[in-house]
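In response to a reviewer's request, we include the raw inputs and outputs for one of the modeled complexes. The two entities were modeled together in a single run.
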Amino acid sequence: MVVKVGRQKDLGSKKRAGLFGPTNLFGYFMILPAMSVLFFFFAYPLTFEIWTSLTDANLGNDAKFVGVDNYVKLFADPEFLTAAKNSVVYVSFVQAGKFILGLGIAILLHQKLVARGFWRAVVLVPYAMPGFVAFMVWKLIYNPDVGAMNIFLTKTGITDAPIAFLGDRTWAMASVIFATIWRGFPFWAIMFLAALQAVPKELYEAAAVDGANAWHRFRNISLPGIRPVILIVFMLSTINTINSFEAIWLTTAGGPSDATVILPVFAYKGLTTFQIGESAAAALSMVPIAIVIAIFLLNKLKKD
Amino acid sequence: MQRTNFKFEVFKYSMLTLVAIFVLFPVYYMITLSLRSQSSLWSKSTLLPVDSNLDNYRAAFENTDFKRALLNSVIVCGTATLITILFSVMAAYSLVILKFKGRDTLGRIIIIAFLTPGALLFIPLAVIMANIGLSNSLQGLILVYLSFMVPLGTYLLIGFFRSLPPELEEAARIDGASRLQALWMVLLPLVAPGLVSVAIITFTGAYNELLYSLVINISPEMRTVPVAILNLSVADEVPWGRTMAFSSIAALPVMAIYFVGQRFVVEGLQTGSVKG
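The model returned the following structure tokens for the whole complex.
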């Protein structure tokens, strides 16, 4: 889609301007502000973080180079291993849930509907709600004393005693996953809906003439038609979900004990106890996953 | 045939109603609880709106820390959004319209920055901001926010600039416009919907940001809204009515902007495929 940023046909492409030719200079001038931001607040911090992760930095000492000690310590730390495992569980279930709900609702919105615009606006509500508000509200809904979920379950007699959804190891992860799906699925639904609408109508008509039933039309026309969008949405959303600090921090803060600690929460807790070198190493341990996704995405986008 | 169609209609709209309840219930619950006192919550367990009054909202508007946080958020996100739009327009214009050496590499750097999870860099950013004396300041937070807003804005605007017909700039230049005139008078008006969508998406992105704000602006008078709401809770004790009233005040204006500008948001999401 967008990665090969330049156009095939460019202005001045016939001119062979040198590095400091007028077009070149103007181009550099225009991109300079954005690049300065990225240099000072992206490239430099990243380098600094990699360096820090190789030192014993904590509050008030001069950082000494310790090589890969932090990484060795990290991979022997049971809480880090739990955080890594939780991250995988959290991201997998959240993404599966968003995919199923997003696709289902997109298909629903793609039908002939009275007031489709209204229904689409309704579906957008969780996405429009600020994340920090959404997760505070879910924390309230799950509350054992005053939360809606428990009022509903006990009033209808489904359970006798209230359940501490966020305070009980059996429920905490599932509850957080559910709240994260609620907040994130609209993006998927809206993107899938747009993709479905872009599939040429003639294909369906031709298939109907050939006698294909609804499932075959979906399987052989809709699904291949929206495949590129599925891939892009999947990857962008995965990076965002790996990153979802607030979803965890505002609901369970990683608890009970370490049941819902994911990598960003682990790194944040490390920073608050001033284990800067180790926290940096923990944050950087998210990079391999992000790189795999990014390379995949860049290649995918280049092909289209 | 007629019968199955009718059944399908019923099925469709009952599913939509279920979706609407699923989606809207938390908003309903936030608002009804924002109107109740803590004692009412404990004494009456009901999902219906009872004991409604505006005390929690009155408390919010009398709370100087919260008003300060709202102001801080507006200043930080507003300023950062304006800077983001300026820098992103310049960068996207240069990457799509202009031809220069290393353009593809620079474009790729922007996309890599866009794809980097924010949680990766909060530690060095907090340390760097402390070292240059900008932690606990609104300026510091604005600078840090630019680190994710500029790549996001540029990524989105690249999509909008690429959707313009390639001959457009050329034609304007043949008519005697300079490059900047062509950008200002011909291209910018055409990507105006893109500017609106970038403004809404980056502003809300910054407004919702919790982690950077939490580690960089520690003192109470520099807090942004998310941190202020988080800090209403003391230990595990959450004053629910009050928290929900403050949350409603924080959320409803942003949600209103979102719905007024819905067309632009959806267009922006589709042009750029942002996040979720």
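As requested, we also summarize the result in words. The domain at 78-303 of chain A is CATH 1.10.3720.10 (MetI-like fold). Chain A has one domain: 78-303.
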